[in-house]
Amino acid sequence: MTLSLSLSHRFADFALDITLEAGPGITALFGRSGAGKTTVINAVGGLLRPDSGTISVDGEILLDTSQGIFIAPHKRRLGTVFQDARLFPHLNVAQNLMFGARYAPKGSVGPELSDVVSLLGLEGLQTRAPATLSGGQKQRVALGRALLSHPRMLLMDEPLASLDGPRKQEILPFLERLRDGPLGLPILYVSHAVDEIARLADRLVLIQNGQVQAQGPLFDVMSNPAAVPLLGVREAGAVIEADVIAHGTDGISTLRISAGEIELPGVQAPIGARVRLRVLAQDVILSLTRPEGLSSVNVLPVRVEDIHPGDGPGAAIALRAGTDRLLARVTARAVSELGLSSGMQCFAILKATTVAPGSIGR
Amino acid sequence: MTPDATAWDALRLSLWVAVWATVLAIPLALWVAWLLARRDFWGKSLLNAAVHLPLVLPPVVTGYLLLMAFGRNAPLGRALEAIGLQLAFHWSGAVLAAMIMGFPLMVRAMRLAIEAVDPKLEEAAASLGASRQSVFGRVTLPLILPGILAGTVMGFAKAMGEFGATITFVANIPGQTQTLPSAIWSALQIPGGEGQAVVMVLMASAVAIAAVLLSEMLARRVAARIAGT
Description:
Number of domains of chain A: 2
CATH class of chain B: Mainly Alpha
Largest sheet of chain A: 6 strands, mixed
CATH superfamily of the largest domain in chain A: P-loop containing nucleotide triphosphate hydrolases
Number of helices of chain A: 9
Structural class of chain A: alpha+beta
Number of helices of chain B: 10
CATH class of the largest domain in chain A: Alpha Beta
Radius of gyration of chain A: 22 Å
Strand content of chain B: under 5%
Strand content of chain A: 35-45%
Number of strands of chain B: 0
CATH architecture of chain B: Orthogonal Bundle
CATH topology of the largest domain in chain A: Rossmann fold
Oligomer: heterodimer
CATH architecture of the largest domain in chain A: 3-Layer(aba) Sandwich
Largest sheet of chain B: none
Helix content of chain B: over 70%
CATH superfamily of chain B: MetI-like
CATH topology of chain B: MetI-like fold
Number of strands of chain A: 20
Structural class of chain B: mainly alpha
Order of helices and strands of chain B: HHHHHHHHHH
Number of domains of chain B: 1
Radius of gyration of chain B: 20 Å
Shape of chain A: globular
Largest interface: A-B, 33 and 24 residues
Strand order of the largest sheet of chain A: 7-8-9-3-10-11
Order of helices and strands of chain A: EEEHEEEEHHHEHEHEEHHEEEEEEEEHE
Shape of chain B: globular
C-alpha cells in the first residue's frame, strides 16, 4: 500500500511544490506552521483541489489535473483524523462510531465496533455525548470512527496538537498499537512535534516553505546533520533502537545498543523489549580520550562521519556508533580546538537525562 | 360575545392558507438558504435581493405585482387557469401571497442556522465516505432543525397575519378569500362591528401565541438532543 503524490499549489503568499511517497507504516510530515503540511493532507483527502499534480494509491489515480481526474473525498476511502476531533454533536459516541461503519464498503475487511472499542479503550463511553468527553477521549472516538470506515490509509492532521502532555501520553500507545497491530494500516501523520514523530514514525518527510527538504527512513533523516536546522537545534537528535536487558533495583535500567550498553532511568518497557531512544544532539558531548570520573556512565566509542557547520556558532556532527548513527551539536570553536575531522575516532558521552519516558517507544 | 360564522370561516381559512403556505415554502426556502449559505455562484447577490424584496416592498405592491403576473387576464394566469389552477380571487392565490411574504423570513432563519454549522463537520462526514446528500441528511439537517423550526414559525406567523398582498391579489370574499386579517378589517368598516373585530383579534393572538409556544417547546427538545443530555 503506497501513496504517491506530486503537487503544485500557489497560495497568495507562498507556493507549494511537493513530491513524496508514503507507506507502509507511519509516514510523518514534519514542518513548522505554514510549511504546507496541512495543504498536502487536505489534497490527499480531497478537501483541497491543487492547481496541478497527481495523487495515486497503489496505482489508483485519485487526482490527475492534466487529465481532469478528481475523485470526490467520499469515494477515496482515506480515513482522516483532524486536530479538532470533529465529532458530530447531535450523535452520541456509539452513533459517531457507527457513522464511520455505515460507509465502510460492503464486504470490506477491517475492524468491527467491538475491536475498535477495546483497541481504543472506549468501554463505558458509548452513550456519552461528545460535549461531555475530554480532549483525549474525543480524539480516540474520532480515530475509532475513521477506522470503522475501513479506510485504505489513515490521514492524521496534528491529531495530538490540541492535547496537553498527559492527554498525549494517553493517545500515543493507541497509535503505536495501530502501527504494530494486525491492522497494519498505513498512516500519513502530520505533526510539528518532534517527540511524537521520533516515537511513532517509520518514514519522515521534512517540509519547509512548501518544499520537501529531506525524506527517508526515520533513523536516517533524524541522524542527518543537514536536518538539524529544520528540526530545530533543541529538538534535533538521532533516534536509535535498543533492547532492554536488565532493570536495576535502584530504578536504572540497562539497554543494549549496537555500540555497547547504556544505563538509563525511567524505562518502563519489560526486559527483552525493543525500545526507541531519542538522543538529542545537544545532549551529546564529545571527548578525544575516554573520560574518567564522570557522573554519566554512558560513554560510547564513535567515529566522526560528517561535520555540518550551521549558520550560527554551532556545528552538527554526524557520528557512527556501532551500526547506529548519532548526532552531536557542538560549537564551531570546539570543532577547531579539538581538531575534529571526518574519520576521527573519539568518545560520545550521553547524558542520562537524554531519554525522556515519552521518547521511548515500541 | 361569541364568534359569528364569518369569524369562524375566516379563522378556518387563515389556518388552511397559512399551513399550506408554510408547508409548500419549507423545501424551497431550505434549498435557497443552503444556496446562499454554502454555494458561490454568479447572481448570488441578485437572488438574495429577490428573496428579500417582499420584506421591503409595500405589501400592496407585492399583491399588485402578483395580480399583474397571475391575474385572470395575465398570460401566466390564463395558462394556469387552462390547467385548472386559478390563483387570483381564489384561496390558492392567498397561499401564494402568504408564501411569498413569509419566504424571506424563513430563508433568513434557515440560512443563519446553516451558516452556524461548522463546514468542518461536513468535511469529516465526507472523509468517512458520506456523499453530499448523505452529509446533508445526516449531519447538516439534524443540526439546523432548530433553525428550520424557527423559520417555519416565522413563516407561519407571517402567513397568518398577511393582509396587504392578500387583499390586493385575492380580494376579500367572505367564505372564499376572507382571511382573519381581512375579516377584522371588514368588521371595523361596519358600524357596530368592533365586537366581532375584538373576538377575531383574540383568535389571531391565540394562534400566534400557540405557534410560538409550540416552536419553543420543539426547539428545546431538539437542542437537548443535540447537546446530548
